[in-house]
Amino acid sequence: MGRVPNVTRADAQSALRNPLAFIAARWTPDPRTVRRAALAALVMSVVIVVTGGAVRLTGSGLGCPTWPKCTDDSITATREMGVHGVIEFGNRLLTYVLCAAVGWAIVAARSAKPARRGVVRLGWAQFWIVMGNAILGGIVVLVGLNPYTVAAHFMLSSALIAVATVMWQRVREGDGEPRPLVGKAVQQLVWFLVAAAVLLIAVGTVVTGAGPHAGDSSEVERMPLDWETVSKLHAVLAWIVVTLTFALWFVLKAVDAPRGPLHRTRELFVILLLQGVIGYVQYFTDLPEVLVGLHMFGSCVMWIWVVRLLLSLRERPEAVPDVPGPSPEATLTKA
Fold this sequence. Notes:
Layout: H1 9-17, H2 19-26, H3 31-57, H4 82-111, H5 117-142, H6 147-170, E1 179-180, H7 184-210, H8 227-254, H9 259-284, H10 289-311, E2 314-315, H11 328-334
Antiparallel strand pairs: 1-2
Helix pairs in contact: 1-2, 2-4, 3-4, 3-6, 3-10, 4-5, 5-6, 6-7, 6-10, 7-8, 7-10, 8-9, 9-10
């Protein structure tokens, strides 16, 4: 081990004023470390969605009946609250793990050399989304699992996944000006696909809000909609997304597009087919909890690949530093 440097009083004061700058001045992470930190934040953003789904599917949504404490008298779950309290409180603890993962991504990106402000901003965007969603999660508990707040909670989690996916992509490419790899028509088709995917996810939250899995064994308010009708609308939107993906693959093959967009489109198509199989099986088997949980995980994976497909339409090389040329005066002097 190397010698541990002495930390002076000035160093301590500097660390307190700006800890990120203090760390960045003394540590330069390997690029693989930055990539792994960004991937860890993305993985945890999916894990928190899946575990949140487990809370709802096990009827543990009010296992901790208040917020920010678990009960009026206890921060943690008590023995009297049983397994539901353990599940709900465990999901709350995972929020701290998510915060740690996002914090690690911010520190790693901030300490990278050369500095990449855009990547650091993506890390901070994740942090503030997590904070906002934590507060919204508390509101969900305080209003007794109101389905509209539950839907907003999931949509904000989807926003977190999108930002985490963008950061994961950005740490693996340069900071040069983005260069499009496909034409405007293909880009517009992909944006239609993105919009359809967002609408698919949003209607999926309505299916949940009107469906039988309320999140708790007590009487919980549901959205006043016919669940069968909303489920069929969700299925129609899913087929629209599948059709757009297949059409995009056909267009990319026709224009001899680069491999990146082609591979992402093909992967997304396979993911959508698997997600569709799970969706139809769960529909015809009265929504077993395990399949509903798998469907939620598939929704996260589908959304990640939609964002990756959008990002694959351009490339960003390493930024070329500006090298000042010789001044006119110097040129005349040499002449």
